Amino acid sequence: MADIDQASVIPNETSPPALEGLNATDPNVTEAVNATVAKFVATPEGTALAYGSLVFMALLPIFFGALRSVSCGKSKNSSDMPETITGRDAARFPIIASCTLFGLYLFFKIFSQEYINLLLSMYFFVLGILALSHTMSPFMNRIFPANIPIKQYQLLFTQGSGEAKEEIVNYEFDTKDLICLVISTVVGVWYILKKHWIANNLFGLAFALNGVELLHLNNVSTGCILLGGLFVYDVFWVFGTNVMVTVAKSFEAPIKLVFPQDLLEKGLGASQFAMLGLGDIVIPGIFIALLLRFDVSLKKETRTYFYTSFLAYIFGLGMTIWVMHTFKHAQPALLYLVPACIGFPVVVALLKGELTEMFRLCANC
User: Fold this and answer.
1) How many CB atoms lie within 10 A of CB 285?
2) Choice among 177, 234, 262, 295 that is catalytic
3) Which residue has the higher pLDDT, 11 or 263?
4) Rounded to the nearest 5°, which phi and psi values hold at 232?
5) Which of 141, 280, 116 has the alpha carbon at shortest distance from 208?
6) Chain mean position to CA 254
7) What are 171's strand-pairing partners?
8) Using one digit for the tens of pLDDT, what is the confidence trace for 107-164?
9) What is the arithmetic mean of pLDDT over 42-55?
10) Range 24-33 average pLDDT
């Protein structure tokens, strides 16, 4: 779970390897060292803009992903069916995530970072196109002109023949979906060629929204197990080692949202970024989406638990940013998000006398 990171704005006091062994008393070398190790110091306005934008971008996929999660289970398209996370899945997830994270860390230490990121870029290029296309689809349905004929297409791959024929891929789409794919491909090419932060964020937002929409917790207990396990995972890998921060900075893929702190000075060509990992959006987001579905199952007009957990997420993310800005150190966002997102709704359920109902009757949410 990549964390909010401010390491890019903290001065680096170590000499770069390219200047090691040179005469440090040489004025030219001293000037080169100072120019190399000097880091950008963000203005208060730039910092506020960057953090405010990260918070806003984090809220978008949670809010709209949660709304879409309510109806996605009713879809007849198999590609839109949710993936249910059980208690066993939740218990194993932190272990699997830790192995994956440490594996990536070793890869970046052993192999060339350039080639690894090239392979990852191509992988996320394909995934990003599909995710962004799926994200755009409902919007395209609303704005697509009614006088343009809609044609149906089917992409079918099978294995074998006759009665032994087995479907490998069966993807149905129409003209609107095709337009979404074309637009998404343009964004993907832009990302591959330029690695621009806007293209990165478009893919990142699409990944996050799809995650919140399509990953369903089977009940609140499972959500508590998942968030609790990843709470420990996030704290350990950020505070206990340098693995998390190293991978987050080395990994050139749209697995994090970024926003430049020097946007006011350099415009769209800015290069000093604050970042927020997608895991810190999706993991609390699927729990918040579960509470929205619980609200719907109560058949009441209010959405008490959804809005409570949504506000709790804002509070937890705000705490993360405040602590990080105060202590000038990268923070595991789940350290603050998990207690807030679980604690606030539980307190509300206790006050309303619905705690037992929340934990027992939400199995089909």
Assistant:
1) 30
2) 234
3) 263
4) -65, -45
5) 280
6) 8
7) 155
8) 888 888 888 888 888 999 999 999 999 999 988 888 888 788 888 888 888 888 777 7
9) 91
10) 44
Between the CA of residue 266 and those of 88, 261, 270, what are the distances in Å?
48, 10, 5
Kindly calculate the radius of gyration of the chain based on its CA atoms and give it in whole angstroms. 23
Per-residue pLDDT tens over the stretch 267-321: 888 888 888 989 999 999 999 999 999 998 888 888 999 999 999 999 999 999 9
- Which two tokens mark 174? 């129409």
Please state, in angstroms and rounded to a whole number, the distance separating the CA atoms of residues 74 and 225. Answer: 27
Question: How high is the mean pLDDT of the chain?
Answer: 84
Q: What are 222's two structure tokens?
A: 């499972």
Q: How far apart are CA 347 and CA 353, in angstroms?
A: 10
CB neighbour class for 295 (10 Å; exposed up to 12, middle 13-18, buried from 19): buried
How many other C-beta atoms lie within 10 A of the C-beta of residue 205? 23
The Cα 21–Cα 39 span in angstroms is: 22
Which is nearest to 7 in space by CA: 230, 195, 242, 231? 242
* pLDDT at 9 exceeding the cut of 50: no
**Tokens 């990549």 sit at which residue?**
2
Amino acid (1-letter code) at residue 192: I
* 234 is annotated as an active-site residue: yes
Q: Pick the catalytic residue: 3, 177, 280, 295?
A: 280
Beta carbons within 10 angstroms of residue 157's beta carbon: 10
Alpha-carbon distance of 110 to 288, in angstroms, equals: 39
Residue 260's beta-bridge partner residues? 273
**Alpha carbons 36 and 25: distance in angstroms, whole number:** 16
Task: Show me where the domains of the chain are located.
Answer: 7-360
